[in-house]
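Render LysR family transcriptional regulator in 3D.
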Amino acid sequence: MMRELNLDQLRTLVAVTELGSFSAAARALHLAQPTVSLHVSELETRLDTQLLVRGGRRVTPTGAGEVLVTRARQLLRDAGEAVELVRRHRDGQVARVRLGSSSGAMVHLLPRILERLDAELPGIDVQVSVARSAELMNRLFVGDVDLALVATPQAAFPGLSVSPWRDTPMMALLPARWKAPKAVTPQWLASRPLIFNEPTTLVHQQTMAWFATAGLHPTARIEMLFNEVTRRLVAAGYGAAILPFEHPSETLDGKIQVVPLRPAVTRRLAVAQRAGTVLSHAAQRVVDIVWQFRELRGR
């Protein structure tokens, strides 16, 4: 019977069961929806039994499906651990932890964290992948990363926990030559040329919500994905931006003036990991060091 079980199909079945729909599983696994349907139907054909109840608002497992999903989770964990053990043996490494980081944590926070990890845990190979927070949640859900530093809020995923970790003030970044007030209001900033993050980002959503408190809906002169490029444009006098402010070096040698927002806005980062699962010893040690950088405001 084992030769009839395909790990990719089992992973698909688990995702459909946990997310409750074929379309959600397709998005999480980066598969076409027909491929997800084919994986499940081939499993049902091979096992000669129905595994999922379709047709309702949420796809649910049958009794047989629930039995298989429970065992499939263990099989997938065992397969992943087996591959990892072979790789470690091949490379002579003690352990590996896969850390995902949003771009918002990358510039100043991530290098500090990695420096401490290298100093205190030299035997652990920390592999970093940088992506948008929503993408990292998907990767964590399917097991491609062990933990992730993400911006919040995030859509809930079954089996994942998201714990508040670090708050950073959102500030108005203005060209140094502009005459600015002591605190920037939506009314003042809306009349200036603006540089926004791309609409898919949480920073953009927070920015537009801040303007909306004053009933304003300004348009940007340009929209950018990378904060470092945005800062360069501000320094060149192209416009103003609203971004999280982490470090004095972000003023680019005084070419940018950083002014508080009124009302104030905070960007919150969180640590996301699998809930109810005992982390490997190496992953837990990495988490412990990440938590040393915890900084929440008002707590």
